[in-house]
Amino acid sequence: MSEESKNQRHKERQQAIKKNIDAKVAAATKEQGILMVLTGNGKGKSTGGFGTVLRCVGHDQKAGVVQFIKGKWPCGERNVLEKLGVRFHVMGTGFTWNTQDRELDTKAAQDAWSQAKEMLQDPSLDLVLLDEITYMVTYKYLDVEEVVDALKNRPPMQHVIVSGRACHRAITDIADTISEVQPIKHAFEAGVKARIGFDY
Ligand code: ATP
Ligand code: MG
């Protein structure tokens, strides 16, 4: 094939793609808050959530974050986002496999959930990140129906991100966008320690 016909074919393909994309853009006319679920066993769910918080704040919008689980490490994102005016609540107990105390965990989860509920009723918040809330539902520290109700009844323009492994079906059923992060490889499996500034 000559260079000229290769160029012509490329142009035609790109024109077809553009026509398709333009039609989809024209059809996307709704404006609403989006409920996004970031789940799966691969690395990148919390980072994806925090990246979106940064995007929101970068447009002078308001965001709130509730982290439903916390290890012994300080959270790098919190250090910077609080300085930028992001409302932040961290459930204080640590990983549930460390506390091994169901009552203590349930109380901490309920406290964090009451902060989350406030955020989900606050129309001044453009985005709410509920990081690792999926575990609270799995362990039944939170009632899934109550979580679903609060998500459904939030301000209509508010975006919410739910992140964590094994998201409950009742939440994925009402989500608008769902991404599942697949683990192909993880350095930890090869014996590499979690690194400050990269893993937390
Ligand atoms: P990150 O916070 O890095 O975006 P994540 O939110 O997707 O990760 P979590 O399940 O919340 O993943 O796990 C948090 C921690 O566990 C992070 O330090 C991360 O590097 C590590 N991690 C995530 N996925 C895996 C995996 N498949 N194997 C081992 N460690 C993992
Ligand atoms: Mg995470």
Task: Describe the protein's topology.
Elements: H1 3-27, E1 35-39, H2 45-58, E2 63-67, H3 76-83, E3 87-90, H4 96-99, H5 102-119, E4 127-131, H6 133-138, H7 144-152, E5 159-163, H8 169-174, E6 177-180
Parallel strand pairs: 1-5, 1-6, 2-3, 2-4, 4-5
The chain binds adenosine-5'-triphosphate and magnesium ion.
Adenosine-5'-triphosphate binds at residues 41-47, 165, 181, 183, 186, 188-189, 194, 199-200.
Description:
The chain has eight helices and six strands. With 200 residues, it is α/β, with parallel strands linked by helices. It has two domains: 1-30; 33-190, Rossmann fold, CATH 3.40.50.300. A six-stranded parallel β-sheet has the order 3-2-4-5-1-6, with helices on both faces. The chain binds adenosine-5'-triphosphate and magnesium ion.
Please tell me the total number of domains: 2
Helix content percent band: 40-55%
SS field, number of helical segments: 8
Strand order of the largest sheet: 3-2-4-5-1-6
State the order of secondary-structure elements, H for helix, E for strand: HEHEHEHHEHHEHE
Can you tell me the residue ranges where pLDDT is under 50 for at least 5 consecutive residues?
none
Q: What is bound: which ligands?
A: adenosine-5'-triphosphate, magnesium ion
How much is the radius of gyration in Å? 20 Å
Anisotropy-based shape: globular
In what range is the share of β-strand residues? Answer: 5-15%
Q: What's the name of the CATH homologous superfamily of the largest domain?
A: P-loop containing nucleotide triphosphate hydrolases
Give the overall average pLDDT: 92
Number of strands: 6
Oligomeric state of the chains present here: single chain
CATH class of the largest domain: Alpha Beta
Largest sheet: 6 strands, parallel
Instruction: State the CATH architecture of the largest domain.
Output: 3-Layer(aba) Sandwich
